[in-house]
Amino acid sequence: VFEKISLHVDVNGVKHNLLVEPRVTLLDLLREELGLTGTKKGCDRGQCGACTVHVNGVRVNSCLSLAVTNDGKKITTIEGLANGEDLHPMQEAFIKHDGFQCGYCTSGQIMSAVALIKEGHANSELEIREFMSGNICRCGAYPNIVNAIQEVKNGGQPS
Ligand code: FES
Ligand code: FES
């Protein structure tokens, strides 16, 4: 039994004051304590990107981040990306371009894709593929994912 540590986080605009065991990852906190199961657990060891969320606006593999190291931080998950009923443009683009098959990798792909554009790393197909390479898709939806990202990057124009 581990001593629990107090943790204050803002998740999708909701403030949480929690007591958390130091061994709990941010991924498990989101899924198991907060019920935000949109963030997926693929490998649980930093290899697949399915667990990607934004921490203070920066993309992070939540399986590699201990929850207690996020004290005072602002977390955004796939559930927090839409604006009420309106999907985020990246979500719309993934639907339009069939950027998924089974969908298991999709939350992570979308969170990574949104961050990628903000980072300024979506300037060519090659660059997109390179900077999305931490997000694995076993279904091989990569060409459609690239198309979706390029459309959002180009302000809604198909590439
Ligand atoms: Fe985190 Fe695979 S579950 S990288
Ligand atoms: Fe199935 Fe990517 S859509 S793993």
Automatic annotation (TrEMBL):
Keyword Iron-sulfur annotated: yes
Highest taxon, organism lineage: Bacteria
Domain 2Fe-2S ferredoxin-type: 3-81
Gene Ontology MF terms: 2 iron, 2 sulfur cluster binding; metal ion binding; oxidoreductase activity, acting on the aldehyde or oxo group of donors
UniProt keyword list: 2Fe-2S, Iron, Iron-sulfur, Metal-binding, Oxidoreductase
Name assigned to this protein: Putative xanthine dehydrogenase yagT iron-sulfur-binding subunit
Originating organism: Mucilaginibacter polytrichastri
Shown residues within the full chain: 55 to 213 of 213
